[in-house]
Every structure is written in structure tokens, then in C-alpha cells.
Amino acid sequence: MASAKGKRRSWREKLENPAVEGLPKVVDIPEKWRKMMGGRRVLVPTPLMADEEIRTVRKGRLITTGQIRRRLADREGADSTCPMTLGIFLRIISEAAEEDRGNGKKRITPYWRVIKDDGSLNPKIAGGVEAQTARLQEEGHTILPGEGKKPPRVNDFEKTLV
């Protein structure tokens, strides 16, 4: 996406995008999608809402995408949070954090502490599973190798969830 001046927007600009009108919003989902989306009333959050939730996760702790979705939904009175939107936002959050690091910021959003509900790592965040593995190992987590098409996962991740 390019801005009005034709210059590509930074990840930070995408994260803080004030042009996303109408968000956050809770929408009623058609019956056929309710099982997949986790309920009838689904929250479509802003990227900053997800970023704020991730910033609460302290060193050595982990949070799953499911936990983030539940926390955001509860806060807004919804049944669940849109999983597709959250996935897109996790990518934006991770890229913005790495952009911030490159610009000399010391405190960035700890996106590497977000894992999938089964404890596996996310190949779609900045640096992929290799970078996430390195970061989590630095914080004391043991990473089990992936099997087949399954990505690596955090050993005994349940013990360190927020």
C-alpha cells in the first residue's frame, strides 16, 4: 500500500493507522461461519488493541493467539475475535517492532512471545520460526523441532502461559 505521496507506508504507520474507520467493531456473523469464528458476535479489533495485549506479556512468559482473541473479545463484549484479522495484525506488530528496533528503540513489542494454541511457532511473523526460536531460547524456553509440515513448538508451553 502506498500513501498519498506514493511512498510506501512503514510498518509503524500500518500499526497506528488512524484511517481504519469503524474499528473496533463487533459484527454478527452468519450461522455458517459461527463455529469457525467462535460465536455469533465477533470483534474486529484494531492493530493497536492487539499490540497493547502483547505488551503485557513479561519475559519468560507466553501467550497464545487464542488467549489474545478471548481477552480482546471479553473486553469488547463479543463472543470471540476474528482469527484472520488477528493473524494479519500479528504480522504488522512484529514487523513494526523490528522496524522500531532498527530505529534504535530499546523497548519493543515482544511479539515472539505469541504462540499458536498448540504451542507451535508462527512462521508468518518477522524473521519466521528461526528468529522466534532464537528469541524464545534466549528467554529460557526449550523449542522442540517441527514434525513434517508442523512448525517447531515450545516444550511444556502451558507452564509459562500468562
Give the C-alpha Rg: 16 Å
Average the pLDDT over all residues and give the rounded result.
Answer: 93
Number of strands: 7
Distance between the termini: 35 Å
Instruction: List low-pLDDT spans.
Output: none
Which of globular, elongated, flat, extended, rod-shaped describes the shape? globular
Structural class: alpha/beta
Distinct helical segment count: 6
Name the helicity range.
25-40%
Give the spatial strand order of the biggest sheet: 1-2-4
Strand content: 5-15%
Q: Could you describe the largest sheet, including whether it forms a barrel? A: 3 strands, mixed
Query: H/E series, N to C?
Result: HEHEHEHEHEHEE
Give the key terms.
single chain, 162 residues, alpha/beta, three-stranded mixed β-sheet, two-stranded parallel sheet, 6 helices, 37% helix, globular
3D structure, described in words:
The strands form 3 sheets. A 3-stranded mixed sheet has the order 1-2-4. Strands 3-5 form a two-stranded parallel ribbon. The N and C termini lie far apart (35 Å). The protein has helices at residues 11-15, 34-37, 47-54, 65-76, 83-102, 128-138, and strands at residues 25-28, 41-44, 63-64, 80-81, 114-115, 143-144, 153-154. The chain has 162 residues and is of the alpha/beta class. Helix 3 (47-54) crosses helix 5. The radius of gyration is 16 Å and the shape is globular.
Present the secondary structure layout.
Elements: H1 11-15, E1 25-28, H2 34-37, E2 41-44, H3 47-54, E3 63-64, H4 65-76, E4 80-81, H5 83-102, E5 114-115, H6 128-138, E6 143-144, E7 153-154
Parallel strand pairs: 2-4, 3-5
Antiparallel strand pairs: 1-2, 6-7
Helix pairs in contact: 3-5
